[in-house]
Every structure is written in C-alpha cells, then in structure tokens.
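Teaching assistant here, posting this on the class forum so everyone can see the example we discussed in section. The complex has two components, and the goal was to see what a joint structure prediction looks like when all of them are supplied at once.
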Amino acid sequence: MRSTRIAVLGTVAALALGACSSGGSTTSEGDDAQGDGELTLWLAGNDTPEELTDWLVEEFESTTDGTLTVERVDWGELLPRLQTSLGNADETPDVVEIGNTQSPTFTNVGAFTDLTDHLDALGGDDLGPEGFIEAGSVDDSVYAVPYYWGSRYVFYRTDLLEAAGIEPPTTLEEFNDAAVALTTDTQSGFWLPGQDWRNGISWVFANGGDIAVKEGDQWVGQLSTPESIEGLTQLQELYTDASKAPKDGEDAEPWTAFNNGDAAMFMAPGWARWSIAEELTENVGAFALPGADGGAAPVFAGGSNIAISKASPDQDLALELLELIMSDEYQTMLAENGLGPANSTFNELMGAEDDEFATAALAAAENAKLTPAAEQWAAVETARIMEEFFAKIAQGQDVTEVAEATDAQLEDALN
Amino acid sequence: MTDVTSAPAPPAALGTPLPRTDVRPDRTNRRRRALVPYLFLAPVATVLLLALGYPLVRQVVMSFQEFGLAQQFGTAEPEWVGLDNYAALVDDATMWGVVARSLAFCVVNAGLTMVIGTAVATLMTQLAGPVRLALQTCLLLAWAMPVIAAMTVWQWLFDTQYGVVNWALVQAGLADFAGHSWLLEPLSFYAVATVIVVWMSVPFVAFSVYAALTQVSDEVLEAAQLDGAGGWQRFRHIVVPTIAPVLSVVTLLQIIWDLRVFAQIYYLQGAGGLRSQTDLLGTYIYNLGIGQSNYGMASAVAMFMLVLTLVLTIGYVRRLAKEED
C-alpha cells in the first residue's frame, strides 16, 4: 500500500521535525498591539506585594489615558521570556523588572530605552544603590534604573540562642562557631542549601575574595585566590557541621525549615521577614552577617532594576508608568513593605530605629556587593555555574580544585 | 510544548487496508479518484508545512550563522560562518557526552516502557472486567496528567528534606536515606527521571498493545494449546507476530519521544540536578539557545539531533513500510 507508506513516512517526518523544534521560542501573550495605550508591566516573582500593584493599576488609569496590566513572571522563566519577547514590538512587555545582575546583558545589547535624559524626573541623585545604576548603564547612558533592593541578613531564633548561652555574634568567626554549636541531630545551626550561592558568596566577599574582576579587557576568575579559598573553606565547614539543608537545595523559600523548627538561623533578603510563621515571630531576631573583623560583612545585594523595552510602541506612557513607580507614594509603600526603595530618601521608612529588622537591613546594605558587571553575566546564571560550584563545595569536594575549574568556566563564559 | 507528536495516528488503523473497488474504468472518474487522496492530505500537509517547515528552514539557516542576542534584538546582522558551528560541535567533548547520555537514556527508557507496557497489556487480557476497568482508569489518569503537575508531585516525593520516599526508606530501617539527595548524583538523577518518564509513557503502550491483543485470534491460540504449545511459546510464536506492526510503530514513537525528552529533565534540573552533568540533547539545545543566546550553535545541535533521529528510526520506518505492502 503506497498511500499507507506515505502516511507512515509523513508521520515519522512530522515527529522527527517536532522532536527538533522543541527548543524553539516560548510563545508569549502578545496581548498588546501597536501603541494602543494598553501597557503591560512584567514583575518578577512575587516580591512586589499585591497592594502595590493594585495601587499602580488604579493610579495609572486615573492619571493617564492608558490601561495597565501587571503580569508576574517566575524568576526562573524571566530570562528566557525576555530574550524571546523583548526584541519584538508585538510581544514585548512595555516595562519590565529585571534582576540587577541580569541587567548588563540586556542593556549592552540595546534592548532598553535610554533613560539618561529623564533621570531627574525619576529621582535624580537620590536614586540608588549606585551599583544598581552601574549595572543598568553603558558608558554614561542609563538604560535601567533601580526598582528595589534587599540586603541579605541573618534571621535567628532568640530563644534557641539564649538557651545555648550564645550572644548574637559580632565577627564572622563567632558566627561560624555559633552555627556549629547550635547544631543538633535534628536541627541545623544555620540553614544553608547546597546550591544557595547568593547567600554562600558572602563568605567569599567577607574574607576579601571576589567572583571575577576585569583586568584590561579580560575578566579574570577570582574564586581560587587565597582570600576566596579561605571563605569557601569556612563555608564547607558550615555545610558539613552546621547545615542539614539539602546539598542540592536552592535559595527558594529558606524559611520553610526555619518555620518547621528545623533551623536556628537562616539568611535571606529582608522580605523573607513576612514569610516567617506567626507563632515564631516573638522569638525571632535579626542581625547583619558580621564581617571578618566585625562590622557588617559585604553580602550579596539582592534586588531588581526596572526598564522600558525599546521595542514598546507606547514609549511615552511607559515613561509615565516609570515616573509613577518612582513617585513618593509608591516609594513609601515599597519601604513600608520592607523592600529597599529606589529613592534613598525613603530608606528611613523601612522601620523605626528600634526595629531590629530594619537596622539589620540597613547595616547589611552598607557593604553590599553585586556580581561582576559583565555583559555576559546572564549566561553564567542560566548555565547555573555558580549553583553547581557551591553544590560541589557542599558535597565536600576539594575546594581549591573546584574553585580553579570554576574560574576557568567563568572566564570562558564572561570573555 | 505542543506539537503533532501528542496526537499520533492510531496505530491499529495501519493494519487495515482500504477496500479497492475496481469498477467503471471511466477516465474522469479515475482521475478524480487519483486526486481524492491528495485532497485529503492537503490540509495536513499545509499545517505541517506552516507549523514545522518554517521553523525548520529558519533553523537550517541559523545553523550556518553566528546568531546571538544582538541579532535577536536586531542591533546586528547575522553573520554567515559556513560550517563553523558544525566544526565546533564535532570538536566539543561536552556535546558527545550529551549525545552518549541521550542515547543511553533513550534505549533504557524506550526498552523499559515497551516491556512494562506490553506486560501490562497482556495482564489486561487476563483480568476480570471490574479489575481491568480499575487498572485502565489508573493508566488513563497517569496518561492524562499534565507533565508539570505530575512533576511537581514527583519532586515532592523525592524531596531531600521532606520527601515521602526518603521517609519511607528511613521507616523501613535504612537510616542512611535521611536527607538523601536523589538528584545530586547523575546516575541517581537518571534513575528518578527514568521512573517518571516510564510511568508517563507506559499507559500509551499498554493501551495500544492491548487494542492489538484483542485482534489475536482465540481459535489459533486454542489450536496451538491443543497442539501442546506452552504459554510462552504461544506468546512468542503467535501473539508477537500478530501484533508486530503495532509493536513496531509504538517502539518507533517511544524512541523518538525518549530521545527528545525535555520537560522532565528540565524540571528535575531546576529541582536540584547539576545541569552540566545531566544535560540531554533537549535541555542542552535549550540551554545553548535560550540560555546562552547562542542560537547558531543551538540550531546546529538541533540539526544533528534531527539526523540522529532519522538514523535511529529509518530502519523501523522501512520495515514498517514493507510490512504494509
């Protein structure tokens, strides 16, 4: 039967084709057409509280001729979706939130609108942190501005520390010792999942190490410098002696174990505060991770930038939306919800002076550091190089060997 | 990830040739009859051409280009690089590791699925009505479950800290499994992935083979039994040859599906697997293209995968076509 043969061949060809087209583009909503005044704002994850987006939608519709749709995109989905939709006028969101470390890749490729001339309307010199603006700039032009920041600090159980006779630590060494001392058969002294590099990297920074630095026009990996190795070795001890968190675990929802009473301390950006179980709150305190010689350790600065898609047909309205986000009302709400406001004049609203959490947040923010401002950094994140590196440290592999191998990988990806 | 593969032609239909009626050797009529099959084919062909042809052409073109984020955003023109992408691909040890893992994964999974699926189908023929219905319902539910929903549950089952698998093993006296990370070691990662992929594919095989088994003539089986053929002999020499066309088609589909497995691996990598040690072709291409914005290289690997799929399946296809003659 010739026809059946053709049918079979056709089916197989179709299947084979289907097999290979699976790596293709992710389709996007494509719900905003040419300059029709319907704006789409992409926010990453659930970090922005509902209250803020509701206000934004209402305010935008009453002060402009446009309408606003807020779409939340998972952090894990954000990069691929931006890559496939930002370049296309039909599919692009008009305004996007983007992780601070992910900004350089998109600003350098020209995906965002130049905001340099509008900076004054957006907050001018009060905009910050400075590192976020740098991450959003190419040469002297600013393409992405800070949206919110959150410094990582340590949450701890006051009752457990008291029972063990331990004072809140003031140096990194004291912290490491306390973490080990608080560990029992069923409880982690310090909860640190294996792939949680965004918290773990603090030990590298605190000991004077770094991820990569630019020498001339080349990025050079710094994970195998003596300072970094010192930090990583301390970290490996914590992984072995103080943390029962999964060695393959990530930084999502670190409060789960804490809320279950399985951990005495954990580290997270400030907004984790709102996820701590209510019955625990009176026994929870906070401090900035102490540095090697006291003070606050340089931790990894979490947070986001925000930018206008260059392909958006509604440039003017998008700018109005951005101004609304930088308005006093919105900045106030950000600060009151524990998100570091882009406009630093609102910092004090993050909590009263006697609020332990606000104090810890501001102390931690002082020394906060960013990942290398390399154009290709997003490739490091999507290839999960840092996650794998820390998982290997957590598994107990040789620190120097793994660090050298990872440096080579970083140089490969960044240059 | 929807594509035509989710709606395969029912394999049973392949075994039933259309009856031919050779009457009225009228010329116009004959011409009309010659046209009819093509008319039926036209809509399918058009859809295929639009939905798959365009991306395929695009992919072929891109595989000869340097195509990255700058090209994607239109700030630079794609640069023709000839066979550079393919040359880089051949030289890349990572790539061959991925290919070897993909082939091994495909063989193990397609094999296990076929064996378990056929066994379940045979079991179904022996079960009483209500029990068979219960089994079929379970299979159907497993088959109908959306991938991501199922994966979420599987991830919970194998969770390091609070997973029920670890809990059960500890309760059974294997204290070592407290806090065991299933996804960290590549082999154990693939074991978990295999369990999930096989679980998801068995229902399709079981139902297809069961449908074929109902066509096996009871008289012939009975006659063989009277002649003294044992259970295994009857299965080997009567049942298998009868359902061979269906087995071939289903095996073919399994090989293709398991070679291009993506969602399960991608999800498990996100749940703890180390990407560089667990990438299969699907996730490798995705990571190259979408992750690192190296669309040119990703297209080249995808072309390689297309050829690999054709090489793996061409034998089957030819045999299938022969069986139809």
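For the discussion questions: Residues 152-300+372-414 of chain A form a domain with the D-Maltodextrin-Binding Protein; domain 2 fold (CATH 3.40.190.10). Chain A has two domains: 38-150+302-366, 152-300+372-414. Think about how each of these relates to the inputs above.
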